[in-house]
Amino acid sequence: MSCSAPFKMRLVHLDLKGAPPKVSYLSEVFPLFHALGANGLLIEYEDMFPYEGRLRLLRAKHAYSPSEVTEILHLARLSELEVVPLVQTFGHMEFVLKHEAFAHLREVALFPNTLNPHEAESLALVKDMIDQILELHRGVRWLHIGCDEVYYLGEGETSKQWLQQEQNSHAKLCLSHMQAVASHVLAQHPGTRPLVWDDMLRDIPQEQLKASGVPQLVEPVLWDYGADLDVHSKIFLMGKYQECGFQRLWAASAFKGATGANQALPPVEHHIRNHEQWLQVAVSGPVDTLQGIILTGWQRYDHFSVLCELLPVGIPSLAACLQLLVHGVFAEDVKLRVEHFLGVSSLEIMDTMSEGAGSFPGSDIHALVTQISLHLRSSVDTLLERNSPSLGHDERVVVAWVLLQQMEVPPRSKK
Q1: Cα–Cα dist 361/274, whole Å
Q2: How many alpha carbons lie under 13 Å from residue 206 in its C-beta half-sphere?
Q3: C-alpha distances in Å from residue 68, one per residue of 27, 72, 85
Q4: In angstroms, rounded to a whole number, what is the distance separating the alpha carbons of residues 73 and 59?
Q5: Looking at the chain, which residues constitute the CATH 3.20.20.80 domain(s)?
Q6: Smallest Cα–Cα separation from 251: which of 224, 277, 273?
Q7: CB 128 within 8 A of CB 82
Q8: Separation of alpha carbons 183 and 127, rounded Å
Q9: Active-site positions?
Q10: Which of 124, 128, 161, 118 is nearest to 49 (CA)?
């Protein structure tokens, strides 16, 4: 492994809000993550965390038990993967605010995604969530407190009245809640540093950011998942954050879950290009400013959205992106290393995804999804185009089912 890799920390994001892996599967993929070049995990539990007390209703039906969380952390240590837990504390709060017991804490009554920052109970709720998560993650160096995509902020009735005062603004409203949450983390859990997604900070004037005190409390994670990421604008943004007083910054790329809410197969070339651009940012920007990069793998765009690429389906893309970060270029020899790690004969970068079963954990799922996505869909589309005037909805479903039965679907693993 190259010792000159520009990102000291390379965290794989495990988004558990939808199709969360069994612990037994994580025991198989963690060693692979390490071998590919990862040295950390960003674990976004959402409703999979075993909350207790008044928060117990947040648990999904099949949430991990406390002993399973402990086992996940043990498995991560065995593979030398440092864990950073993530808990949403402002936006993306659907898994909390959908419940009747907490619905009164919504910023806008109709929408369960954003927390009302004016309510004292809102901060108490967030503190309780943080404390329970850190109780099972004692000694972690970082806690990600989310704070991205805080939709409808300022649109609640209390916020509208508050914003009528001349000195108040949407930026001040956002920063004050972020400051309160981060201050709790630092006061009650010394040694744990809060991370935040940076999108709510980008357009806030420099002087206001500096005066808020937030730069002394959190480390922003600059996220951009585009294949055409603007390197110069990212370097400029890093400079702005530094001048505001942020001492440490992070980057966030994507290996899946960023190119369509119902995407089935990750476009590998897109994600490789995204990481190539982030490498340019790292080598061209201020020295030693970026502490690491988080390779995000979103499972759903939000709590109520459909699933996008499953984790096993995204592993070839993850492998290519991690090896690119380690070696600095995705040359032919790096591609051969990725193919060796995955046990595939050929990794097709230009196509949606290569065919062939492979031998990596979950490769049977990958092969099945590939067959359905690349073969069944085109077969159904062709048939429907020829017969669409004469086929009703039920008949179309039957056509898809018959075609699926005719495919040679690989057997499931017996593990």
Answers
A1: 25
A2: 10
A3: 12, 6, 15
A4: 19
A5: 9-352
A6: 224
A7: no
A8: 10
A9: 149
A10: 128
* Res. 3: pLDDT tops 50: no
The number of helix segments (H) and strand segments (E) in the chain equals: 14, 10
Q: Are 43 and 116 in contact (CB under 8 A)?
A: no
Instruction: Please state, in angstroms and rounded to a whole number, the distance separating the CA atoms of residues 269 and 274.
Output: 9
Rounded Cα–Cα distance for residues 213 and 284 (Å): 28
**385 CA to centre of own chain:** 37
Q: Give the C-alpha distances (Å, rounded to integers) separating 404 from 44, 241, 363, 369, 393.
A: 34, 52, 19, 12, 17
Provide mean pLDDT across the span 59-87: 98
- 29 token code pair: 């993929």
Positive or negative CA dihedral for 130, 133, 137, 141? negative
Query: For residue range 145-200, what is the model confidence (pLDDT) as tens digits?
Result: 999 999 999 999 999 999 999 999 999 999 999 999 999 999 999 999 999 999 99
Cα 225 from Cα 228, distance rounded (Å): 9
| SS3 state at 344 | coil
pLDDT band at 400 (very low <50, low <70, confident <90, very high): low
pTM: 0.91
Domain covering 9-352: architecture:
Alpha-Beta Barrel (3.20)
Non-local (6+) Cβ contacts of 372 within 8 A are: 264, 404, 407
The DSSP result for 123-183, as a single string, is HHHHHHHHHHHHHSSTT-SEEE------TTTT-SHHHHHHHTSTT--HHHHHHHHHHHHHH
Beta strands 111-115 and 106-108 are: antiparallel
Q: How many CA atoms lie within 13 A of 6 on its CB side?
A: 23
Biggest alpha carbon–alpha carbon distance for the chain: 68
